[in-house]
Structure formats: C-alpha cells, structure tokens
Amino acid sequence: MPAIKHILIVEDLPDVALWLREQVQPLLHPERIDEAGNLAGARQAIAAHRYDLVLLDLGLPDGDGMSLIAPFRQANPKAQCIVTTIFDDAEHLFGALRAGASGYLLKDDTEEEFASQLSGILAGRPPLSSSIARRVLQHFQPAPSPMEAPLTQREQDLLTLIAKGLSVRHAAEKLGISHHTAASYMKGIYSKLQVNSRAEATLKAVNLGLVNPG
C-alpha cells in the first residue's frame, strides 16, 4: 500500500482531535496532518489539498459528516476514508459504508484496539472496530430463532429499559433491584446472546423479538 503522507482529521472537539493526532503520528508517520472542526473547514481543506487518509467524525456542528464522504472520495479516489465516531448503530454504520467509507472505528474503543485498527491500514486490513465487524457479519447472517437465546422475564424487563435509553443503574432503580443484581443479569444476557456490549445486546434482542423498546 502507498505511504500515507497527508492526513485530514475532521473532528469538532479539540481534545479528541489531539488524541487522534497522537494516535496516527507514531503509527503512520505522515508528513502533514491537517485538522478541520466542521464541514465548512473540511470542504476548504479538501479543495486546497490532496489527502491519503481522512479520519471523519459524523456529528459535526454544521451538519452530518456523512455528507463529506462522497466529495472526499471524488477528490481523493485512492485515499482511505475512515469514520471515527461514537455512533455504533446500524443506520450510521451502513449509511457510511454505502456512502463510500472504507472503515468505521469507534472512539470509545480501548486505545490499544483503536491503534491496532489504524496500524492495520498499512497491512491492508479493513479498519473496523471489532464490534462493528461483528455487526456487519450479523447483518448478512440469518437471525437465529428466539429459542436459541432465551432470556428470563427479569432479563427481558431489564433489557427493554436499556433499549429505551436507560443506564443499567437507572434500569435497576426502575425494577427495584440493586445495581449489582442488574449487573449480574447483564452478564447473563451477554452470555446468552453472545455479545459484548449493551448496544449489541439491545440490537440483537430487538432483532430477535425478545424485547420491545416501544
């Protein structure tokens, strides 16, 4: 793969932009790293320079970063366009991939995992967070029968509240159980559904018809 010499970071939070810069500098050794805090600044940078890589946030103050993917790829057809975001839902994920993103990394991954995925770019590996890679695979696999992942009524009650946006602690309060009991239920849910996060558990349970967030 050609060397990555010029990088554009599109991120509106200065501390996160600095963190991203600190990740890519020792891994990719670029000659130049430019930063833009919004869509307008990113469009100006793309018009003025050519890039080998963009790290693109989706939630920008002046619009959806997804709208930048196509024009970036048109201006830099051989470049990598990697979304770096907190959004781990299917709508953002598949929307970005359909728009032309070549990778999708979650900013709340561990630093080690994030760095590993970035360094994999040089080896030609697709830069996908592990939970996102599983989401992509699950999308193209038939959903198992709900009987393959039975949840108790209490587990379903807890997961339904979490699907509505409550934290585990707040869901526990709603159900009148301790936080430790709720955490134990979540551990059982993870094991039964074979997932590793609340977001994955919620998505899988809803797809299986085990919970109804509505």
From TrEMBL:
Residue numbers carrying 4-aspartylphosphate: D57
CDD domains: LuxR_C_like (cd06170), REC_NarL-like (cd17535)
Domain of life: Bacteria
Domain spans labelled HTH luxR-type: 144-209
Pfam families, per database record: GerE, Response_reg
Gene3D superfamilies xref list: 3.40.50.2300, Winged helix-like DNA-binding domain superfamily/Winged helix DNA-binding domain
Chain ranges of the Response regulatory domain: 6-122
Keyword Thylakoid: no
Entry-linked PANTHER family: NITRATE_NITRITE RESPONSE REGULATOR PROTEIN NARP, TWO-COMPONENT RESPONSE REGULATOR
Protein name: Response regulator
Organism encoding this protein: Isoalcanivorax pacificus W11-5
